Structure formats: structure tokens, C-alpha cells
């Protein structure tokens, strides 16, 4: 079962990967378009001799200044962020496996659990009680039908090794200025002199110890640097462990150059599927970038994350270290992700030095009470292979396969938000590009177009008036769409009666009395009814959006505002907001129009606004807290079936009563949407037609100024024929058009 | 003496399964309880009536049972016309009793396809009293709006208000006034939740054309009253059954809900506890006595100057034969009047030419 589920998830991801790749291509185009804009801006700035376009643009100083003011820095900031996220997603969907990362402080039992799951021993997965013996990051892949254990070892490059060594030097000596540039220089690092600098700084001392290993042993293990090699089981230990699992005295140093060991073997659990276990170095180790590497693995290499925690019998309470790990991971991958797929394993040690049986329950309770974002808390004896499989691996695999697609969608959603921001920035840029001629209109053109402007405004207002007259006819009638949706909810309400089995199981739970069970059922039903009716907001939202769309179409078509901002059928509020932002870009020059648009944008009808109180008012029959006594429930003693039957009878009867009451009382409310639509439209019309700041600053005047400002786009032909730089204007338009056409911004959205 | 016997016909009107026969059964039981010790005696005039009444009473009792929570009412419809006769007499007097003859017909006959309108109209023409049984949940539930005057959407399919109105309008009106009683049944739910006045309001709305008909020239032609009765007492209407999608299950033939469920709020009630069931009989008797008094007064007025007739009335009719006089009936009327409920709990005399 798990095998098939994982295969299906991987296949779905492959399909989504195509969308990610398409988004990447789209992003390249967007980037190209912005580069083109900047190149043109440079061209204008340089103003080379003989450049006719620039010469003509320069003739209109306002236009020229507008071009030079174009600024793409915001776009690049969002672009970079989006690009990084896209790469992470590509990496995630490109995997052929589901990855489970093990994180936690050093000595919590990570390696021990990995051994139990993979069936490998300490010679492949190093572990030593209470200490950190893992030398390099390993990933362990489940490979079906393979008796062999092999590993692909990837070594660091020269540059990476030098970076690591310099990282130690910086950490230890701070600004003292030690650093190396070649591998040969590593063995020449003056350890003695540096040691004197360190004095009693424990952290620096620990790092110095690590650095010393590079200084003393790098030369002997550097032969593999930059390579990748496949090795057999017997050789794995020396590349991944710090010392032999048989004899501590036998030290290994090859791991210093190992970037990652990909160990492949067949796991004992047959139904484990294509999973990969990612081992990370335990926090607390003095090696470089342990924190960073762990978080990198959690963010980039993981589908599920397991935090290993071995409570200490001698130290009460949760350690800050675990809380910090969760917090850091949540910051990286979001708390919502953690709530789905971060599992906290409490390692139960039954005997020996680490025996912690006495504190396990308390530790679990503390985790639960801490309300940290985790998907589950498992209490597991990590030394017991059977228990690790049953209590850890199985629930994690089950949770992982159930929730991973939800989490993937969540990540895609987040990415799409960023894509949306990027698109908006791009549009702002192209809008500004397209608007360089805006506001550069001479008085003679304005005079010529005066009657055309007035006529356009009056036509738009006339059609708006027709709209509210049309709505006026319906405002005393029920809104059929809302009525239909409400009636569906009413019918659904009658189906909330629990099943006989459900009620019997509640009656058998603990020492619950039949009255308690009856009350519990009423609580559940009441909340379900409220939640269900709140869903009517979707219908109301649709009704409101339809009205807004009608109004926008009037503005766009009759008011000719399509030239300023076309309406492509997307969310009407987005159009209204964008339009408002657009006309206010150079200061709030049209406050009355902006205010009217804002009011329309804010107009919503919500269930909470007018209906939910009525629904709640009619739930009294199902609310035992409002009655002196519960209904008489038959069937005494152990006759749970009889009790359940009677409880169901009462719930059914009261639901029926509630239904009838609600049905009648809702009849009055079905008119509300129609009344609200009329009111919103009438208000919008009044504001667009009659509002004024003072006698001389009326909304009609503001319309005139607005149209005059946008003459170059709304009455393009008339404008072009009236200016000297016609050719420049045309060439500019061609350029803007080409920039816009190059980019299909919708492709950035992954659906 | 038989030829002088005063007899009135009471037509039991109402849709199918409205509970017409149950009214008769409950009336008989209640009246016996209320008037057992009074001077008035009421008893089934024949064994057929007695058996039919007893059978219906047993059916009502069968709905009750220890630990029973709910039931679906009335699975035994009346299949043909029945006449149930009750004799009324005075304990203190000998002589002719009066007879009330209830005509109970199958509610199905009101349906168009039954083609029985003519037959029903015949029964109606010869009836002095028309009792209209109303299946109240159908009147009260599933109203299209929340207004008080809004009528349940299944009401007319069940209670045939429009057809009954039209048929009554076809009745030839006589000199003497008829009595029309609206008897809402299965009202326990509305009595217990305090909405009986609403029942009366909705009846007046549903039968508005009929009430309007007895205005003006016809104002003296009918005594009209609403007298709700609770035949079960402790069983309330619960709901019309619905399918899995929440739609009311409909009997396609009659276009009415196919199942009405009633329930016992107290599952330990063992037998019916009817309320106000004696009232229809009180109204009918009062009407009957009013008619008898009127008739006797007519005869007395005609013969009052004849000394032999006066001697006969005083010495033979009253003393020797111990037969009832006008004064006896007037006394009984007064006694009935005291027990008559004319307001509260949905009771209302809507048209009152007889000055009840």
C-alpha cells in the first residue's frame, strides 16, 4: 500500500514539475523584458548623437523625466526571492523518493533509529551512546530487490574545503585575519599561535579541535577531493564515521572531505516504498555550520522531519535546544508545514545509564502543552526494532503519504503569492513605461476634446443609472441564488443527525451518561450548522462580484477606461484596487473618484453581517444550556442501543423544529442581498455623479481632469495627431507593446 | 311517538385521514365523562354505531404503549359512508329522545377523481350541522412565509378548504340557520407551545371566502365557530418524514406528505388523555335544543288560546306522561351554556346569529 501511494505521489510531482519548469521559462522571459526596459532607459540616459528616438523624446521634458525615473529595484528583489523558491520546488518535485530527515541535538538516538529502520549496523551508520560519532551527512535510500549495501560518496571540492577551513579560522580568531587560499596552506596554519588567542573560550576551543583535524590530517585524505565514488559496505564506515564502531582508538579522517554519503540498501520493512532517510549531524557538535546544514536539510531535502529527543532523567523540563530547533525549522518552512509533517519522537530508554522511564510521561505532556507546531508526538523505544517500525515508521509513513500533497499545494500556494507580487511589480513597471506620455497634454488638445470627455462621462453615468433602476425592480423580491443556496443548507441541516453506531460509541465511552451524550451531540450539531451557514459567504461573495463586474464593465466600456486598465475577468476587487492605485500614482489627484471606487471595492455582504445571528437565534431547541431540563431519554442501565435510538429521535425531532423555524425566519432575509446590491450601486452612482469637496471641487470636475490626464491613451489618435514627436510616440508605443507581449505573466502561476 | 322524534343530521366534512371518525369516538367518550351525572343522556342509537365507535377508540388506544416514543397516525381509512346515530334524552323525563345522526364519509371522496361531489352535495343539503375536521399540522406547517396568515403549502391538498367552501356555498339556505363547526384536530403541539390563537387565525384565512359568504344577506344563515379538540392529549405532531436529501416524502397521488410522525414527549403515558372533545357535542346539543325550543314555542304560540291544549300540557304531558316541556329544554340549554367553551385556546365563535 505505502509503495503504491509513494509511487503515485512521485508521479504527481513529476507532472507538477512540468509546471514548475514552465514557470521558470516564464520567469526568464519576464527577466528579459525588464532587461530590455533597462537597456532602453540606458539608451535614453546616454542620449547618443544621432539617436532620433531619444532626440524626439527629449523635446518633451516631462516625458523624458518620466523615462529616467523608471526604477526596477523592487522588481529584482521579489524576482530573486521567487527564483530561489522556484528552485527549491524544482528540487522537491524532481526527487524520485520521499525524504525523511532526522534532526535533533547530538546523542538523542538519531543514528540508532536509522539503524533500526535500515537494518544497517554501526559499521555503516555510526552511533555511540551519548556522543556524536557521525562524521559526515548520510542519506540512506531504500532500494528494493537488492541484497547488497553500497554507498555513493560525494567529496567536497577544493573551494568548499578551503571555505570550511576559513570558516573555522574566522570563527576562532575573529578579526585576527588568518585565512588560507590553497590546500597546501592548511597544514601550515599556526595552531599553537591560534591556541594562545583562544584562551578559555570553550566554543572556540571546540572549533580549534576540529580545525586541528584538518591541519593534521587533510593532506593524507585529500586524494578524493572533488570526486565521487561508489564503495562497498565494508568501506563505508571510514568515510562517514569519526572512529571505528569496534575500537574507539581507531580514528578516521576521510569524512573531513565527504560532502555526502548516499547509502543504498533494502530496508527490513517490505512496504516502506521509495523513501530516503536523511541523517544530519547532531546540534551541539563543534563542527562548522551544523545548524545551517540541519536547517538546509529540513528545508531542501525533506518531505517529513523527525525531531529526535531523549529526555534526560536527571533534568526536569523541556530543553531550550529542542524548542529552538522547532522554532528555527518553523521559521524556515512555516508553522503550517510543521503542523502537518514535523514529528517529535520521544526516545524511551528502558534500562542502563540513560534510563528515562520515570520522566517520559511528563516529557510528552510538556510537549503537548507547549502548543508547538508539530504533527504528532511518538513515544518510542528506539532500541527496539519492532517498536521503531510500528510506533515510528508506520505512523510517519502513513501521515506523510496522507498529507504530503496538501503540503505540496501549500508550498505552491505560497509560491504563487510571490509570483503574484512579482507580476504586480512587473505590471507597475510596464504601466509606468506605457504612461510616460500621460499628463503631458497641451491645453489646445484638452479644449478640442472637451465635449468628447463630457459625453463619455455622461454616457457612463447614464448606463450606471440604468443599472440601479434595474436593481430597484428586484429589491423587494428574494434573491433567488441566495435563496437556493440557503435552502440547500437547510436541507443539509436535517442530515446532521448522528448514526446509531456513533451515538452508541459515545455512550460506551468512559462513564458518559446518556444526558451527557445527548448534550455532546447537540454541541456538535450546533457548531456544524453555524459553520455550514457561514459557507453561504461564498454565494454572497459571488453575487457581489457579479455586480462589481457589471459596474466595472460599464466603467471600462462606456467610460472608455479600458485604455487605462483593461478588465480580463479576474477578481473585480483587484481591478478596482489597481485602478484606484493607478489614478493615485502621482498623488491623490482624484479623491472623490478614488473614494467612490474604494467604497465599491469594500462593499461586501456577509452571513455574519446579517444572517448568522438569526440562525443562532433559532438553535435554542438544540441548546440544552437554555432549558431547565433535557428531554426524557428512554432505556435505562446498559441498554445503550435503546438509549441511542431515543437520543437520535430527539435530535432528529429538534433538528426538524429548528429547520422549520429557520426556514420561515429566513424567508425575510432572502431579500437582503438584492436590497444591498441596489444600495451599493445607488451609492456608487451618487458618489460618481454628485459628490463634492467644495463648490469648486466636484466629482464632475475630477472626472474631467482624469480624462484630460489620460488623453494620450484614451484618445490616442487625436493626441498623436496633435503633437510634434509623433514618430517618437509611435516608436515608444511599439516598444511598450513588445515588452508586454514578450511576457505571458500568467505562466508564473503554478496550477 | 317515533314520528315526532327530533332528528338532526351532522355532516362530518374533511379531507382524507383528517381524523373525522376519531372525532366521533373521542366525542362520545368525553361527553360521557363530562355529562355522566347530568340530566342529559347520550348513547349510541344502534349497535353498529356502538361497535364502530368502540373500534375507533381501540385504534386510538393502540397508539399508546409503555415506553413508546413515536408513531405514524391513522392507517385505517374509512372506506364508505357511515351514519352514526346518537340518542339524546333527559333522565328526568319520559318520552321521545332526540337523535343526532352523524354522516361520516371517506375523505378520499373530496378528491376530483372520486367523482362523488354530487353525492356529497346531497348529504350536505340535508345536514343541519356541518362539522369541518381540519388536519392542523397541514395547516400550520411548511408555510411559504412567516406571516401569521400564511397557510401550510400542503393544506389545501389535505384539508380541501377551497372545495369545501365551494360545496357549502352550493347548499340551499333555509329559514333556519345552519351551524358550521371548524374542528382543528391533532393540535397538541400548538396547545403546548401556546400557538392555538394562530391556529384560529390560519383557519379564518384558509376559509376566508366562506366566512365572507356568510356576511350581509346571509349573515343570519349560519352559526360559525372554531372549536379545536385534542383527541390524544399527550401525543404531539413531530414532523413530516423526509428522504435522505432532506426533501419531504410526498405521496404522489395526493400530493401530500406521505408520513406524519407523532411522538410522546413523555414515553410513559399509557393511554389517551383527550381535551375539549366534549365541546363539539355541546355545541351540537345546544344548537339542537335551540331548534327544539324554537319548534315547541311555535306550536305553543299557535295553541296558547286553546284551554284544552293548556290543560293537556299541564296535566297529561307534564304530570301523567312525564314528558319534557319547553322549560325543561331551556334549563338544559342553560346547563350546556355553562360548559360551552367560546374563547381561549383557539376557540372562537366567528358568526353568532343564534346568540350562543
Structural class of chain A: alpha/beta
User: Could you report the average pLDDT of chain B, rounded to the nearest whole number?
Assistant: 83
Separate helix tally of chain A: 31
Mean pLDDT of chain A: 87
Report on this structure.
- The complex is a heterodimer of chains A (751) and B (356).
- By secondary structure, chain A is an alpha/beta fold.
- In chain A, a hairpin with a 2-residue loop joins strand 10 (692-694) and strand 11 (697-698).
- In chain B, 38% of the residues lie in helices and 20% in strands.
- A nine-stranded mixed beta sheet of chain B has the order 2-4-5-1-6-7-8-14-13, with helices on both faces. Chain B has a three-stranded antiparallel beta sheet with strand order 3-12-9. Chain B has a two-stranded antiparallel ribbon with strand order 10-11.
- In chain B, strand 10 (250-251) and strand 11 form a beta hairpin.
- In chain B, helix 1 (20-35) crosses helix 2 and helix 10 packs antiparallel against helix 12.
- The A-B interface holds A 490-495, 631-632, 634, 646, 649, 652-653, 656-657, 660, 664-665, 667-668 and B 67, 69-70, 141-146, 238-239, 242, 244-247, 263, 265-267.
Amino acid at each position: 500500500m505505502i509503495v503504491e501511494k509513494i509511487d503515485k505521489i512521485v508521479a504527481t510531482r513529476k507532472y507538477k514539475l512540468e509546471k514548475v519548469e514552465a514557470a521558470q521559462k516564464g520567469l526568464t522571459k519576464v527577466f528579459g523584458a525588464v532587461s530590455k526596459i533597462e537597456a532602453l532607459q540606458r539608451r535614453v540616459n546616454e542620449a547618443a548623437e544621432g539617436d532620433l528616438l531619444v532626440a524626439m523624446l527629449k523635446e518633451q521634458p516631462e516625458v523624458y523625466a518620466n523615462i529616467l525615473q523608471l526604477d526596477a529595484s523592487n522588481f529584482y528583489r521579489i524576482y530573486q526571492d521567487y527564483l530561489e523558491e522556484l528552485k527549491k520546488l524544482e528540487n522537491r518535485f524532481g526527487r524520485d523518493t520521499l525524504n525523511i530527515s532526522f534532526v535533533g541535538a547530538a546523542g538523542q538516538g538519531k543514528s540508532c533509529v536509522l539503524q533500526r529502520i535500515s537494518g544497517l549496523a554501526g559499521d555503516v551508520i555510526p552511533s555511540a551512546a551519548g556522543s556524536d560519532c557521525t562524521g559526515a551527512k548520510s542519506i540512506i535510500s531504500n532500494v528494493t530487490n537488492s541484497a547488497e549495501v553500497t554507498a555513493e560518496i560525494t567529496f567536497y571540492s577544493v573551494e568548499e574545503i578551503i571555505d570550511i577551513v576559513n570558516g573555522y579560522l574566522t570563527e576562532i580568531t575573529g578579526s585576527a585575519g588568518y585565512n588560507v587560499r590553497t590546500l597546501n596552506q592548511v597544514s601550515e596554519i599556526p595552531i599553537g599561535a591560534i591556541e594562545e588567542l583562544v584562551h578559555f573560550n570553550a566554543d572556540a576551543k571546540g572549533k580549534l579541535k576540529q580545525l586541528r583535524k584538518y591541519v593534521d590530517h587533510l593532506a593524507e585524505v585529500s586524494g578524493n577531493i572533488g570526486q565521487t565514488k561508489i564503495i562497498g559496505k565494508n568501506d563505508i564506515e571510514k568515510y562517514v564515521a569519526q572512529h571505528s564502531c569496534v575500537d574507539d582508538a581507531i580514528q578516521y579522517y576521510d569524512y573531513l572531505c565527504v560532502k555526502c554519503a548516499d547509502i543504498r540498501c533494502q530496508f527490513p520493512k517490505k512496504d516502506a516504498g521509495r523513501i530516503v532517510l536523511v541523517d544530519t549531524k547532531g546540534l551541539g557538535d563543534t563542527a562548522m555550520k551544523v545548524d545551517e546544514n540541519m536547517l538546509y536539510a529540513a528545508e531542501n531535502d525533506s518531505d517529513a522531519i523527525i525531531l529526535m529527543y531523549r529526555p534526560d532523567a536527571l533534568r526536569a523540563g523541556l530543553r531550550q535546544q529542542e524548542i529552538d530547533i522547532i522554532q528555527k525549522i518553523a521559521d524556515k518552512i512555516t508553522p503550517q508545514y510543521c503542523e502537518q509533517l514535523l514529528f517529535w519522537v520521544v526516545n524511551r530508554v528502558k534500562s542502563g545509564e540513560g534510563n528515562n522511564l520515570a520522566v517520559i510521561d511528563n516529557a510528552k505532556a510538556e510537549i503537548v502543552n507547549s502548543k508547538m507546531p508539530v504533527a504528532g508526538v511518538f513515544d518510542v523505544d528506539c532500541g527496539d526494532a519492532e517498536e521503531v517500525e510500528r510506533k515510528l515508521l508506520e505512523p510517519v509513513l502513513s501521515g506523510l503519504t496522507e498529507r504530503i500533497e496538501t503540503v505540496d499545494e501549500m508550498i505552491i500556494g505560497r509560491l504563487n503569492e510571490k509570483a503574484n507580487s512579482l507580476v504586480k511589480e512587473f505590471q507597475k513597471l510596464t504601466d509606468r513605461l506605457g504612461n510616460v506620455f500621460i499628463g503631458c497634454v497641451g491645453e489646445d488638445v484638452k479644449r478640442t476634446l472637451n465635449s468628447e470627455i463630457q459625453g463619455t462621462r455622461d454616457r457612463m453615468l447614464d448606463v450606471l443609472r440604468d443599472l440601479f433602476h434595474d436593481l430597484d425592480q428586484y429589491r423587494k423580491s428574494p434573491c433567488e441564488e441566495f435563496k437556493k443556496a440557503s435552502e440547500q443548507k437547510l436541507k443539509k441541516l436535517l442530515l446532521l443527525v448522528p448514526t446509531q453506531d456513533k451515538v452508541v460509541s459515545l455512550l460506551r465511552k468512559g462513564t458518559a451518561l446518556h444526558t451527557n451524550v445527548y448534550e455532546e451531540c447537540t454541541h456538535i450539531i450546533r457548531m456544524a450548522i453555524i459553520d455550514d451557514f457561514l459557507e453561504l459567504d461564498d454565494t454572497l461573495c459571488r453575487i457581489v462580484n457579479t455586480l462589481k463586474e457589471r459596474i466595472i464593465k460599464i466603467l471600462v466600456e462606456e467610460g472608455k477606461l479600458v485604455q487605462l486598465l483593461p478588465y480580463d475577468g479576474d477578481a473585480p476587487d483587484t481591478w478596482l484596487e489597481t485602478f484606484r492605485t493607478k489614478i493615485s500614482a502621482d498623488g491623490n489627484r482624484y479623491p472623490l473618484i478614488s473614494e467612490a471606487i474604494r467604497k465599491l471595492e469594500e462593499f461586501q455582504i456577509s452571513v455574519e453581517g446579517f444572517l448568522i445571528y438569526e440562525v443562532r437565534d433559532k438553535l435554542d431547541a438544540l441548546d440544552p444550556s437554555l432549558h431547565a431540563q433535557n428531554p426524557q431519554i428512554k432505556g435505562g442501565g446498559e441498554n445503550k442501543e435503546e438509549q441511542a435510538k431515543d437520543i437520535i429521535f430527539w435530535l432528529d425531532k429538534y433538528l426538524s423544529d429548528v429547520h422549520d423555524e429557520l426556514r420561515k425566519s429566513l424567508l425575510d432575509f432572502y431579500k437582503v442581498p438584492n436590497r444591498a446590491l441596489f444600495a451599493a450601486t445607488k451609492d456608487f452612482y451618487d458618489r460618481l455623479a454628485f459628490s463634492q469637496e467644495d463648490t469648486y471641487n466636484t466629482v464632475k470636475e475630477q472626472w474631467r481632469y482624469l480624462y484630460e490626464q489620460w488623453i494620450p491613451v484614451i484618445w490616442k489618435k487625436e493626441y498623436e495627431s496633435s503633437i510634434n514627436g509623433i514618430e517618437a510616440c509611435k516608436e515608444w508605443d511599439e516598444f511598450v507593446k513588445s515588452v508586454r507581449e514578450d511576457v505571458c505573466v500568467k505562466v508564473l502561476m503554478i496550477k | 311517538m317515533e314520528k315526532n322524534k327530533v332528528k338532526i343530521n351532522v355532516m362530518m366534512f374533511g379531507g382524507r385521514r383528517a381524523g373525522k371518525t376519531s372525532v366521533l369516538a373521542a366525542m362520545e367518550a368525553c361527553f360521557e365523562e363530562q355529562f355522566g351525572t347530568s340530566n342529559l343522556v347520550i348513547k349510541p342509537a344502534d349497535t353498529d354505531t356502538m361497535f364502530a365507535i368502540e373500534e375507533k377508540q381501540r385504534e386510538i388506544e393502540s397508539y399508546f404503549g409503555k415506553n413508546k416514543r413515536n408513531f405514524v397516525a391513522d392507517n385505517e381509512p374509512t372506506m364508505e359512508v357511515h351514519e352514526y346515530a346518537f340518542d339524546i334524552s333527559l333522565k328526568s323525563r319520559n318520552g321521545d329522545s332526540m337523535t343526532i345522526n352523524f354522516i361520516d364519509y371517506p375523505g378520499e371522496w373530496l378528491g376530483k377523481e372520486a367523482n362523488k361531489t354530487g353525492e356529497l352535495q346531497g348529504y350536505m343539503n340535508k345536514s343541519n350541522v356541518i362539522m369541518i375536521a381540519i388536519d392542523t399540522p397541514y395547516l400550520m406547517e411548511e408555510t411559504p412565509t412567516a406571516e401569521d396568515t400564511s397557510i401550510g403549502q400542503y393544506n389545501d391538498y389535505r384539508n380541501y378548504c377551497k372545495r369545501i367552501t365551494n360545496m357549502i356555498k352550493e347548499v340551499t339556505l333555509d329559514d333556519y340557520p345552519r351551524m358550521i363547526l371548524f374542528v382543528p384536530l391533532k393540535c397538541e403541539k400548538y396547545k403546548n407551545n401556546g400557538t392555538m390563537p394562530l391556529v384560529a387565525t390560519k383557519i379564518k384565512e384558509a376559509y376566508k371566502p366562506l366566512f365572507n359568504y356568510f356576511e350581509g344577506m346571509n349573515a343570519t344563515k349560519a352559526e360559525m365557530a372554531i372549536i379545536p379538540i385534542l383527541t390524544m392529549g399527550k401525543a404531539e405532531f413531530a414532523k413530516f418524514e423526509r428522504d435522505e436529501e432532506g426533501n419531504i416524502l410526498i405521496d404522489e397521488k395526493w400530493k401530500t406528505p406521505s408520513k406524519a410522525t407523532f411522538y410522546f414527549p413523555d414515553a410513559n403515558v399509557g393511554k389517551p388523555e383527550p381535551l375539549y372533545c366534549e365541546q363539539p357535542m355541546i355545541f351540537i346539543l345546544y344548537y339542537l335544543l335551540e331548534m327544539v325550543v324554537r319548534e315547541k314555542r311555535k306550536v305553543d304560540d299557535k295553541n296558547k288560546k286553546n284551554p284544552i291544549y293548556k290543560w293537556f300540557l299541564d296535566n297529561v304531558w307534564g304530570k301523567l306522561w312525564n314528558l319534557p316541556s319547553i322549560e325543561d329544554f331551556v334549563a338544559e340549554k342553560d346547563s350546556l351554556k355553562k360548559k360551552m367553551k367560546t374563547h381561549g385556546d383557539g376557540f372562537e365563535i366567528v358568526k353568532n346569529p343564534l346568540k350562543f
